[in-house]
Amino acid sequence: MSAMLHAPRRTPGLCALTVALINTAPIVQAAEVPSYCAELKQVAALALARDKFASIIGAAREGNFLDSKVSLPGWGDCSFYGTRTYTCDSQGFKTADEGNAAHRKVLEEVKSCLRGGWTEDESRASPGYVVLHDERQLASITINTDLTEKGEHIVRLILFLRSR
Question: Which pLDDT does position 142 carry in this prediction?
Fold first, then answer.
């Protein structure tokens, strides 16, 4: 009598689920760390450093605005307002719903990028407006929605030094 070896029985549903989980893992991971994370970490670290933003402030613009030597990839018009406030605008969106969805996404991306050192201040939040503070309360980030003169909905990220 010879022993017969049988191949394990495969369940199509289980195989499909396994493939789906393997294929979505990189997508979930990519959403956790935005393309602008390294630059955002750099600007956030400078806010807490002794010389603050001095090394990345560029030439004067109109009014109290100054160029920034560091821009967040995928964002536009990154600049300084005075020497204590860094600001960037997202791309424009046609509808408020698109702008609000982008706001939620940016909030999650920023929290993921700066996790551990920054926390959301839920007592200061309102629809379309969120505040994050660094753990030492030296700087804050606001993420809000806004409407441009062209009627586009944008997300605005502002990182500023707090007064003591």
Answer: 97
